[in-house]
Amino acid sequence: MHKRAYPIRIMFMILCLIVLTPVVKAAGPKKPLKCVAPAYLKPGDKVALISPSYYCSMETAFRAADTLRSWGYEPVIGPNVGKQYLEHYAGTVEERLADLRWALKDPDIKAILCLRGGYSTLHLVEGLPLKKLVASPKWLIGYSDITTLLSMEACAGVMSIHGVMGCNIAKQDSARVQQSCTLLRNLLKGQVPRYELPAHKENILGRATGTLVGGNLATFAPLLCSQVNEIGQSDIILFVEEVEETHHNIDRLFNMLKMSGVLAHCKGIILGDFTDCKNDVGYESVEAMLREYIAPYNIPLLCGFPAGHEKVNLPLVIGAPVTMDVRADGATLSFDIPGKQKTVQPREIIFQYGEFTECLNIQPSKDTFLVKLHWRFIESELKESSLAELDSVLQTVCTESNRFELTYWDYTIAEASSYPGTRRGAFLYQRMESICPNSCVTKMTIKHEIIERYTEKQPGYRVLMICPVRE
Q1: Measured distance CA(303)–CA(155) in Å, rounded
Q2: Within 10 A of 25 (CB to CB), how many other CB atoms are there?
Q3: What domains appear along the chain, each with residue ranges and CATH number?
Q4: Which residues contact 415 (CB under 8 A, 6 or more apart)?
Q5: How many CB atoms lie within 10 A of CB 103?
Q6: Integer Cα distance of 32 and 35 in angstroms
Q7: CB atoms < 10 A from the CB of 470, how many?
Q8: Which of 54, 72, 61 minimizes the C-alpha distance to 168?
Q9: In contact, 470 and 401? CB cutoff 8 Å
């Protein structure tokens, strides 16, 4: 009996070793993420517009192309853009994959801008080997469901951009959206942001360096059981955001990250926006709930980073080495990648409507500059004389301070849209940025006054007040 049992036990042990060997290998540490930065864009470079997720209309694609053209690039719309499958999808899986493969393969295309998110990029994972992504590194841009593609790029060893998409740059219906679009435009041409952020009561203080990964939580979590698993050695900074999920679903998803070992590999965590997320578990906020998961790991936590599904969606370089420094008075996030560094403080933008005729009687102090601006009727274009005066003032201001608050008064004729006024406000900010590349606008107030017609009391000009902020 015992002699027969011995060989059986040996065979059983060998069988166990065969079965368990892959598990042991899978549990071991992978190589840390090392991603290359694609080349920044030059004027005239081609940018592909594709719809790898939900359907996007051709009208939106054309408007996005117009914006890219105004940035100095040559937009190229994917062959299958505009197709629709089963109501929501932007074509079949093969059609969406075909546009992605085309954009990756064409050597003349230097960046890929996704038109919108939604759901279904998960369908593309098995149809696109990671080696296809690294063969010709180029910037891939998007957020939300595009998190899948950003994660694929990181696993392949290529940096990408979590930021506004084609549907956002096509519309730009507020100064908040335009701020994000401007930062994306600047990043593509090599201006790397260094973000300075206000303090948040759920922050955990500390400093950490690692490779930035993540994106939309509900999109990121399922990737952990696929070839798209960015978790290697303990060198990652995790960013997550979410939209229209209940707090208990967010809790479930984040618990998945914990049980999968993700949190154990994090050097720091960044929480973005949690938009329209219903509180159904009793915590004061999502940040307060997730802080309980993160605190035992003794790593820094940066809450309230303005990225995700709000109108301000600041670009983040996924796959880039970053340093986060969370202090009692605020936090900074910087990217250790090639390019010209520029400090960015997400500015407060205030919209006011009503009677603002007091702007005509302002007596500027020595620290305040007032510029009277004449526009071509309601067009978003300054007259040459006003443009010259504005540039002259900006040249003077830049020698005195690097931080400013702007107040812009815009008169709008009754029944006319206030949208041109918003565009003009954003234009003034961009003009200041181009003249004063080291400046930082910390607050911008755009004031609209509705009038029946231009009168002597309310003439057809606008006023910009530039106020340097003293430390």
Answers
A1: 26
A2: 8
A3: 46-189 (3.40.50.10740), 195-344 (3.50.30.60), 348-468 (3.30.1330.60)
A4: none
A5: 24
A6: 10
A7: 8
A8: 61
A9: yes
Per the structure block, which two tokens stand in for 403? 């931080």
> Per residue in 372-401, pLDDT tens?
887 765 555 778 888 888 888 888 887 666
Sorted by sequence, the CB contacts under 8 Å of residue 383 that are 6+ apart come out as 374, 375, 376
* pLDDT tens profile 66-80: 999 999 999 999 999
CA triple 137-81-141, angle to 5 deg: 35
Task: Read off the pLDDT band of 1 (50, 70, 90).
Answer: very low
Residue with tokens 């190229």, as numbered in its chain: 76
CA 368 – CA 311 distance, rounded (Å): 30
Q: By the 8 A CB rule, do 208 and 323 touch?
A: yes
Residues 6 or more apart whose Cβ sits within 8 Å of residue 351 = 422, 445, 446, 447, 448
Residues 121, 117: Cα–Cα separation, whole Å: 8
Count of residues in the chain? 471
Structure tokens at 159: 């940096």
Q: Are 108 and 159 in contact (CB under 8 A)?
A: no
Q: What is the DSSP string of 163-218?
A: ---HHHHHH--SHHHHHHHHHHHHHHTTEEEEEEE---TT-B-EEEEEEEEEEEHH
Distances (CA, A) of 353 to 66, 89, 178, 410: 30, 40, 20, 10
Task: Locate 301 and state its tokens.
Answer: 């936590």
**Torsion of the alpha carbons at 275, 209, 134 and 43, rounded to the nearest 10:** 70
Closest to 52 in 3D by CA, of 126, 104, 114, 102: 114
This prediction's pTM: 0.77
Tokens, residue 128: 């696109």
447 strand-pairing partners? 352, 409
As beta bridge partners, residue 373 has 462
What's the Rg (C-alpha) of the chain?
Answer: 26
d(CA 246, CA 210): 30
Closest residue by Cα to residue 141 from 49, 270, 275: 49
